[in-house]
Design brief:
Blueprint (H helix, E strand, L loop, with lengths): L80 H7 L2 H28 L25 H4 L4 H4 E12 L4 E10 L3 E8 L4 E5 L5 E3 L5 E9 L14 E6 L4 E6 L3 H14 L12
Antiparallel strand pairs: 1-2, 2-6, 3-5, 3-7, 4-6, 7-8
C-alpha cells in the first residue's frame, strides 16, 4: 500500500501589505517617485494634428447656407461705383477727375461759341395795340450790321406841333421831329386810341440820317367822338423803325405839350358847335 499523503495546512489570507503612498507616474514601469509632472519634449505628431490658433465659438457660428455673422452682406453681388472708384489708385483717380473737368470745359466753350454764332434778335419793345406796317424782314444781319446799334437806341423823336385841318371832317395834322445817330428808316406811326385814325402822311417810308433832323408829318382823323376822352393823359405813339441790323417798334411819349394839344383838338373837333362829319365808309 502506498503511503497516505498528508493534507496541506490551509493558509488564510492576512492583511495586505502596506504599499508606498505618493503620486502616480504617467509612464508605465516607473517607480512610484514623487517627481512633478512635466510636458512631453515635442509637439503632438498624431495622424490628424489639431489646427493652430484659437477655436471659434460654436454659439457664434452661422447656420449652414447663410453668410458669416461677421460679414456684412448686401443685396448685390457686384461692387458699386463708389467701391470701384475708391478701389482705384490715387493717381488714376486724379487723372480721371482732370479728364472729366476738361471735357466739361470744352463742352461749355463749344456751347458758348455756338450761341455767339447764332443771329442776334432785336429786343422786344412795348406795344399797346396793332398797327399797320410792312412785313417782317427775313434776311439775317451781316457781321458789320451786328456792330451797329439797334434803331430804337439810335433814334430820337420829339413833338413839333399839332394843327386842326378840317373841323367838318374832324381831321388834324401832327408834326414830329426825328433825329438819328445812324441811318434808319421810319416805316409807320400809330397811336393807342381806337376812335382816332393816325398814320404817316403818304404812307411812304421816311429815311433819317445823322446829317440832320427830319420832319414826320402825321395825318389823324377822329372816327367816333363818343369814345374820345375829354382829356388826353400821357398819350403815346407807336413808331416802326428799321436799319441794317434789325426792325423795331418804339413807343414814344411826346410829353405834356403833345397831351395838351391833343386835348384841345379833341374838344375842338367834338364840341357841341362842331358840324357833324360824314359817316365812315
Amino acid at each position: 500500500m502506498p503511503p497516505a499523503r498528508r493534507p496541506r495546512p490551509q493558509q488564510h489570507p492576512g492583511p495586505a501589505p502596506d504599499l508606498p503612498t505618493g503620486p502616480s507616474t504617467p509612464y508605465p514601469g516607473s517607480s512610484g517617485s514623487s517627481l512633478p509632472y512635466s510636458a512631453p519634449p515635442g509637439p503632438y505628431a498624431g495622424p490628424n494634428p489639431p489646427p493652430p490658433g484659437p477655436f471659434p465659438d460654436p454659439a457664434s457660428a452661422a447656420p449652414p447656407g447663410l453668410p458669416d455673422r461677421e460679414t456684412l452682406a448686401s443685396g448685390r453681388d457686384a461692387a458699386g461705383f463708389a467701391e470701384l472708384w475708391y478701389g482705384l489708385p490715387v493717381r488714376t483717380r486724379r487723372v480721371a477727375a482732370v479728364a472729366v473737368c476738361l471735357v466739361v470745359l470744352a463742352g461749355g466753350g463749344y456751347a458758348l461759341a455756338a450761341g455767339q454764332l447764332t443771329p442776334e434778335r432785336a429786343p422786344s419793345t412795348s406795344r399797346s395795340g396793332p398797327g399797320p406796317g410792312p412785313g417782317p424782314d427775313t434776311a439775317l444781319p451781316s457781321a458789320a450790321s451786328r456792330r451797329m446799334p439797334y434803331p430804337a437806341q439810335a433814334a430820337h423823336i420829339t413833338f413839333g406841333r399839332l394843327a386842326v385841318s378840317d373841323r367838318s371832317r374832324r381831321t388834324f395834322t401832327v408834326e414830329m421831329r426825328a433825329t438819328a445817330t445812324v441811318p434808319l428808316t421810319v416805316l409807320d406811326v400809330g397811336q393807342g386810341y381806337d376812335a382816332v385814325d393816325l398814320r404817316l402822311a403818304g404812307r411812304q417810308p421816311l429815311t433819317v440820317s445823322p446829317d440832320g433832323p427830319r420832319t414826320l408829318l402825321l395825318k389823324a382823323r377822329v372816327t367816333n367822338c363818343d369814345r374820345v376822352p375829354l382829356r388826353a393823359r400821357s398819350p403815346f405813339l407807336n413808331v416802326t423803325l428799321r436799319n441794317s441790323r434789325a426792325r423795331q417798334e418804339l413807343s414814344v411819349i411826346p410829353g405834356e405839350r403833345y397831351a395838351d394839344a391833343l386835348t384841345h383838338a379833341f374838344r375842338t373837333l367834338c364840341g357841341r358847335d362842331t358840324p357833324a362829319s360824314p359817316s365812315d365808309p
